[in-house]
Amino acid sequence: MEPLFLPNGAKFALERLESRGYEAYVVGGCVRDSLLGLSPHDWDLTTNATPDETAAAFSDCRLIDYGKKHGTVTVLFHGEPLEITTYRLDGVYTDNRHPASVTFSKTLADDLARRDFTVNAMAYHPARGLVDLFGGANDLARRAIRCVGNAETRFEEDGLRILRAVRFASALDFSLEPETGRAVHARVALLDHIARERIREEWNKLLLGKSPAKILSAYPDVAARAIPAFAGAGRVDPAALSAAPNDLIIRLSVLFHVYLSKENRLETADRAMRDLRYDNAAREETLAVLELAGADMDPAEAAVRRLLVSHAPQTLKRALEAKRCLGIPFPEKIPAVLETVLARGDCVALRDLAVNGRDLMNAGIPAGKPVGAVLNRLFEAVVEGDLPNRKDALLRAAADMRRPE
Ligand code: ATP
Ligand code: MG
Q1: Which of 115, 147, 187, 194 best tests ligand 1's pocket when mutated (most atoms within 8 Å of CB)?
Q2: What integer pLDDT is reported at residue 93 of this predicted model?
């Protein structure tokens, strides 16, 4: 095997721990991704040093030690977080979620055995090479997600692993090894015990993976546990997802469009997103895109400006993308009209108007309601294209509006 490329932070941390007489490895996702030729987004270390010993070894660095009771100390190396976790041996699981106790261990093998999938259970050290006790490299080559140990037992310990299995398959475009796949179907109801926020995080990663459509067709039961409203959808083909760019809002909108029936689509999507505790911004944006994607669009410049009065340009662009993925026709001129209107900086908000309240008051319009009313009428006329957005023209029109009939 070729040596893996380690960033300076990971090398520094390994050397530092070893210089203090501890054993340490990089582990988990970073090893998996390196072996796949992907660049890891973060580097996790595992060590026989206890959390206090780790903290002491890095006393000259900035530490974030919020995870200390689970054995994790986060060291900031030039702003890059390095998670250093003490070898763990998970205790007995009592509630399908958390081990009743976390025990630290002195052996790497214990730590690897508690990990979820073989491809996530490999450790690496520049001098000692790869430690692969469960056939992770072989499963990477076969593109398979396989539980470490008995799949049903591992899912009973922690139901979230059911969704994680499907999430990693989507993220990497892998398949579930048959035994693990069977256990997912058999134990899918265990997902009901898991906190909705944790479900949401895995669900998002699933949607943003390489092959969400493929995996959702193979595991519709998992989709229906994450989003109960999908349970009634029957056999849905989420193929439209395959055409979607890697954008969570677009992918969620496309999914809601294909899974939910037209009559109560928006309400049901709203409830599903509240249930998974999405933040308001993500929920409102998804609903706006979902609604626009299902609506007719008029390519007239005034109509596009009207849309921009109530929606950000990004929302309209997402809606057009969603329509494209879903095969919902729209006038082909629209993207170009949108670009023109945006490039020209057409007035689509009161603050873009060439006059403001002060200008109108200076022109003799009484403060308060009268100014507000005139301002709104001028704004509407400009958006409609009935007036140019120029100060002289708008002041003249304002004077006309105030003249008694
Ligand atoms: P990603 O690139 O998405 O972050 P990752 O492999 O780093 O992938 P994490 O969720 O960050 O995934 O978890 C880090 C590692 O911790 C995993 O690779 C796995 O070894 C272990 N792990 C995480 N969650 C669980 C779990 N629920 N059960 C067992 N092991 C887990
Ligand atoms: Mg990670």
Answers
A1: 115
A2: 66
For residue 164, which atom of ligand 1 is closest to its CA? 27
Question: pLDDT tens across 309-355, in order?
Answer: 999 999 999 999 999 999 999 999 999 999 999 999 999 999 999 99
Q: Does domain 148-236 have CATH number 1.10.110.30?
A: yes
- For residue 339, what pLDDT is reported? 97
| Ligand 1 binding residues, C-beta < 6 A | 28-29, 115-116, 120-121, 158, 160-161, 205
Which ligand 1 atom is at minimum distance from the Cα of 30? 7
If one looks up domain 350-402 in CATH, what number appears? 1.10.246
Ligand nearest, relative to CA of residue 33: 1
Other beta carbons within 10 angstroms of residue 178's beta carbon come to 11
pLDDT at residue number 68: 78
Is residue 238 a contact partner of residue 258, using CB atoms and an 8 Å limit? yes
Burial of 405 (0-12, 13-18, 19+ CB in 10 A): exposed
Q: What is the pLDDT of residues 362-398, one digit of tens each?
A: 999 999 999 999 999 999 999 999 999 999 999 999 9
Point out the residues of the chain with pLDDT beneath 70.
Answer: 91-100, 404-405
Say what the pLDDT of residue 236 is: 78
Rg (CA), the chain: 28
Residue 238 confidence (pLDDT) = 82
Q: How much is the pLDDT for 92? A: 60
Q: Where are the domains of the chain?
A: 1-142, 148-236, 245-344, 350-402
**Domain boundaries 1-142, CATH class:** alpha beta
